[in-house]
Design a protein that fits this description.
The chain is mainly alpha-helical. It is built from eight helices and no strands. The radius of gyration is 19 Å and the shape is globular.
Amino acid sequence: RKVKDMPQDLFLNHEFLTYSFDLIDGIDALLLAGKNNSVISIYRTFYENYIVFFFLQIHPELKTAFIEHKDLLHCSFIKEEYSVKNLEIDESVKTRIDELEKKYGTAFKDNYGWTASVIEERTKRNLKTMFEELNLSDVFAYYYKLACNFTHATSFSLLCRPKIDNIYGYIYAIVEIFIR
């Protein structure tokens, strides 16, 4: 059975698990190579996907919008690429963007525009709001904040190097996510 022919729930579960295991494989390889900063950056991506995945589990009515949001972003990137290269864009790409904006509104193009029917206030459509609704442990929030500080170009990320002892907490958090 092809992935694209799967029922929506099975498709999203498949994509989340496949991507999660890819990230964990990357973490494993980077740990062996001693690339602790990169491990933390990948943890951050893993954690963000975890929040989105479980938010979709408690709000299954958002799954179609989530999948269609990917279509909008994909078409928007194609449109931007063609614009930068001074190429003519295929009319089907423009049509798909128009269809989705008509269906969901112009705010749908925002990173978390797919949450609009559940998170009405546009400025609240973010991971923090989802995190709070999921009622996740503050331990996860701590590791996420720390990971953000190692990921973004700041004095902290440029001048600090996490030691292997710092990484154990991230590995524990990943195990906790899978147990949950």
